[in-house]
Amino acid sequence: MPKIRIVFLFFLFVFIAIIFKLFFIQVIPLSNNSKSYLKYRQIYPDRGLILDRNEQPLALNRKSYLIFVEPKKIKDQNTLIEKIAKELQVDEASLEAKMNPDLDWLKLAEGVNQKTKKSIEAMKLNGVGFEEQSQRYYPEASLSAHLLGFVGKGKEGEPVGYFGVEGFYEQDLAGLLGFLKSERDPIGRPILIGDQEKIDSENGRDLVLTIDRSVQAIAKAKLKSGMESYQAKEGCVIIAQPYTLEILALTCLPDYDPNSYFESNDLIFNNQSISSLYEPGSTFKPLITAAGIEEKVIKPDSKFDEKGAVTIGEYTIRTWNNKYEGKITMTRILEKSSNVGMVYIGSKLGKNNILKYLKNLGFGGVTGIDLQGESTGYLRDFWTDIDYATVTFGQGIVVTPIQMIRAFSSVINGGNLLRPYIVKAINTGASTQTVKPKLDKKIYSEKTSEIMRKMLVSTVEHGEYKWVKPEGYKIGGKTGTAQIAVGGRYDTSKTIASFIGFAPADKPKFIALVVLKEPKSSIYGSETAAPLFFEIAKELLYYYNISPTN
């Protein structure tokens, strides 16, 4: 019996000693509130996926790892730094600068792949650990760079979307952060009786775009080839569905790989299709012609006597080739792209109507496209007689490519000025939010639109670029060549060459705008942008299985 009592007293003493020690270590520091602390760790959600209209992936997440160290557990800091720096291919000094022996946890690197993780694990270094992460990955590399944007780092090192869809839809894609909160003792150990709390993260929403990956690939490949052939400095292609203004493809060159955006110059991140300003030149003429028809001041077969150049104040306006045909129709004005003829249409339309239509078509304001970084263009406040004259053929007004394809679409789609958009649906997990086309304003009547489609088909059939049109198809469109202003004067050797067109003519399946900056092989849109458009059109006619009509 005494032996049992002795054993019992021994275990009681040990138990009391453990309780006392725990109380001394954990409770007493809490009482003075000076040596315990709360440790917060953020739990990052998976970013929402970005898919094309056929749910082909454009932006995904792949598994990566964060490497951390616990400095207090490191036995040989120099050896650890040497080995990890070699594996990560970074400077040893940069890792050494991060080391702080007073910290209980320290991040060394992020975005480490599985292979590198295994190599470092095999070294069996004390104080080194890993946390699984989700890293943004673009499987098509630069295919949709300006369209998508990229994911970089925020002020606190958190992933943040920049430019394009990634930037515009940051709140939807990012999801909600979770966190782990734990109370720690002075040397970083969790306090057993301290606060412990975990709130799970909420993954971001998936986006389904209006973009067709196959159409995007066609546009990108043809643009690259065309820029090389015509020796252009920059270029853009936008392809849209004219009756909804869903963007089917949007690509600009030069571009970058969003997987390695940090290797590129910041200036290249700007999306030229929504931010680059240019004078549209003759692609603007159908907008003014349509206004004249809508206001019933001209008809397609109305006659104008093209005798020669027109003088307005101290300025003289000529045709691009300085050739004049005498009495010509309004349709012929578009076919031969007569600047003199457009001044006549402008005079019939009147100054007030010119301004009214420019404003109604949205020039001088944003289109509202769901992409980050859109510019407004420029619509002058003060107008002179020469300004009213030159704007009829696309000079003296500054637009963006997205403004042009939007306005031109209204000419051929029944007169509806629509809001261009990129995201077709947002998947919230439990439900799907579908984005529908948005009508901003009615500009032209159905009748005017029908007339304009026929006039623009005739413009292709009898224009200076008819030789590049695919046989058997009715395609409408208009070329443009605009000189670039340098030092307040137009440089005749530097131009913006463009073409905007649609097919098939009766009910267009697509509308496409091609813009080339400073092509060197030829300054004219008819010899650069137009052939490139028709190369793209051939591919799209085949892709959409559109049969010839004759």
How much of the sequence lies in strands comes to 25-35%
Coarse shape: elongated
Tell me the CATH superfamily of the largest domain. DD-peptidase/beta-lactamase superfamily
Question: What structural class should be given to the helix and strand makeup?
Answer: alpha+beta
CATH architecture of the largest domain, please? 3-Layer(aba) Sandwich
CATH C-level label of the largest domain? Alpha Beta
Classify the fold: give the CATH topology of the largest domain.
Answer: Beta-lactamase
Q: Please give the count of helices.
A: 17
Specify the helix fraction band: 25-40%
Average the pLDDT over all residues and give the rounded result.
87
Number of beta-strand segments: 23
Gap between N and C termini: 115 Å
Biggest sheet record: 7 strands, mixed
In the residues, how many domains can be counted? 2
Which residue ranges are poorly predicted, with pLDDT under 50 across at least 5 consecutive positions?
Answer: 24-38
Rg from alpha-carbon coordinates: 33 Å
Description:
The protein is an alpha+beta fold and 550 residues long. It has 2 domains: 40-117 and 125-209, Alpha-Beta Complex (Penicillin-binding protein 2a (Domain 2)); 213-543, DD-peptidase/beta-lactamase superfamily (Beta-lactamase, 3-Layer(aba) Sandwich), CATH 3.40.710. The chain has 17 helices and 23 strands. It has helices spanning 2-32, 77-88, 92-98, 114-122, 145-148, 164-168, 170-174, 213-230, 272-275, 285-294, 330-336, 339-349, 351-360, 385-390, 401-412, 446-462, 529-543; strands at residues 37-43, 50-51, 57-69, 106-112, 128-137, 150-153, 159-162, 178-184, 196-199, 206-209, 234-241, 246-253, 303-306, 310-312, 315-317, 326-329, 416-418, 423-427, 432-434, 439-442, 476-486, 489-503, 510-517. A hairpin with a 4-residue loop joins strand 11 (234-241) and strand 12 (246-253). The radius of gyration is 33 Å and the shape is elongated.
